[in-house]
Design a protein that fits this description.
With about 450 residues, the chain is α/β, with parallel strands linked by helices. The chain has 15 helices and 14 strands. Strand 10 and strand 11 form a beta hairpin. The chain starts with a strand and ends in a 5-residue tail after the last strand.
């Protein structure tokens, strides 16, 4: 696998730089990775943001190709846990998978939980949990949910589930199309929207009994587990289990996907208004803001792209957009604009005397409890992904909630009054509006068809 090295020692020391570079080269050599580029501070040293931007630009130039980003340790990306998560999510969006050269702790999140501070707290000590996970990964055992098409056998290995595997093979055959003549690129078959519509029309459903979506099918097409490869916590085992898809079919599907997915410019994500406030009525977990972009071709050959932002409970099946099949489960999903609007209407309709009784200024000491609550949820999300029960991309929403809460804490200077909170309910400025709602509301209980603000005084 091709790899890009990245190192930035905390001190401008030639020996430290040389040691970092040697660690990266050794890791790539032992893992049979091709080291294509190495990003260091340079001479004269680049600013940290500029050095990191160079790495991101390089990954984006690869299109949809995979690349390993090898670092000596988490501190080379950031000295704090939340800073590291921010950079990991950005690298993930650019197509980079980060690994540390420390063979005992190759996963950057597991490594960071033991080595990086967060919000004034000492690094978590979870050696026994980490060692147990690494032992299972070294044996190629199932950790977390199995991909569609496999089930966990009694000994922890991957076993093919025939019914599901048949659909996986059909998906790849449809999308990858016929083998092209030698020297020609594959044209592929029908697109993901057509295939998902075909499966749904036949009454086929996902493992959680939900309709198929293009997002879900896209994730399956990119999952190398179907070729028998295993990748967990820095462990890569080729031929770990029986394959469902032959490698040439898998590679043909990747080529078709790359040809149909032009490289997109990196974009900055807009924070979500209700980050850290909206909670699922059923399980109590925080609603996560997510964004999906859809592209259609017009009859005249031009194309149109739209972004859809929504909130979804993490317990809701991944890939089911807000508003789709709400009766199928108890965990809600809402379009972001609709949930924001419903929340604002509920808060604005509350009698002013009740709002006044609920108001708690951001700077009156209550923000300490609020920020700690958001920090705890962020740390919980990091631990969940580090333990194999999620992906780096799942950390975008809790990180956004954390940064919003931190902005609130910095903004709260004692001048934010009840009148400011009421006026903010009519503003279009996201940060001020969020602070205004948070000064009046403890949380927003989100149901499938309504919202229920829980005001700080306990009224609702």
């Amino acid at each position: 696998m091709r790899a890009a090295g990245y190192y930035r020692p905390s001190a401008a020391d030639a020996r430290a730089e040389q040691a970092a570079l040697l660690d990266i080269e050794r890791y790539c050599s032992e893992g049979f990775h091709t080291l294509t580029r190495t990003f260091g501070p340079g001479d004269p040293p680049l600013r940290d943001p500029d050095q990191f931007a160079g790495l991101v630009s390089y990954l984006e130039s690869l299109g949809r190709g995979e690349a390993l980003v090898v670092i000596p340790g988490p501190r080379h990306l950031s000295p704090t846990l939340d800073g590291l998560v921010g950079r990991l999510t950005e690298l993930d969006r650019a197509g980079g998978e980060v690994r540390c050269t420390d063979t005992r702790r190759p996963d950057p999140l597991q490594n960071a939980l033991e080595s990086l501070p967060f919000a004034g707290r000492s690094p978590a000590q979870s050696l026994r949990v980490r060692e147990s996970l690494l032992t299972k990964a070294a044996r190629g055992e199932v950790l977390g949910r199995t991909p569609y098409g496999y089930v966990a056998d009694i000994d922890g290995s991957f076993r093919i589930e025939p019914g599901e595997a048949a659909l996986v093979r059909r998906l790849f055959d449809l999308y990858a199309g016929a083998t092209p003549p030698e020297g020609q690129e594959p044209e592929g078959g029908p697109g993901l929207r057509l295939i998902s519509g075909m499966f749904n029309a036949e009454g086929l459903r996902t493992r959680s009994n939900r309709p198929w979506t293009p997002v879900t099918l896209s994730g399956m097409l990119q999952n190398r587990a179907y070729t028998g490869s295993y990748a967990r916590y820095g462990m890569r085992i080729v031929g770990n289990h029986d394959r469902i898809i032959e490698r040439d079919v898998f590679n043909r599907a990747q080529s078709v996907m790359a040809s149909r997915s032009p490289v997109r410019q990196r974009r900055s994500l807009t924070p979500y208004l209700l980050s850290g406030l909206a909670r699922c009525w059923s399980c109590g977990r925080g609603m996560r803001g997510q964004e999906r972009r859809r592209r259609w071709n017009r009859a005249d050959g031009s194309s149109i792209t739209r972004a859809y932002r929504y909130y979804a409970c993490p317990s809701r099946s991944v890939g089911v957009a807000a508003g789709e099949d709400r009766e199928a489960g108890a965990h809600p999903g809402w379009r972001a604009a609709e949930l924001d609007r419903a929340t604002l209407e509920a808060v604005r309709s509350e009698p002013v005397e009740n709002l006044r009784a609920s108001f708690r200024a951001v700077s009156d000491g209550a923000e300490g409890d609020d920020i700690r609550s958001v920090e705890d949820r962020f740390l919980e999300a990091v631990r969940e992904v580090a333990s194999g029960r999620g992906r780096v991309s799942d950390l975008g929403a809790p990180l956004g909630a954390l940064r919003t809460a931190q902005d609130m804490l910095r903004t709260g200077s004692g001048a934010f009054t009840f009148d400011d909170a009421v006026r903010s309910l009519e503003t279009a400025e996201l940060s001020e509006l969020h602070i205004g709602i948070a000064s009046l509301v403890d949380r927003i209980i989100v149901y499938e068809d309504r919202v229920e603000p829980v005001f700080r005084s306990g009224q609702s």
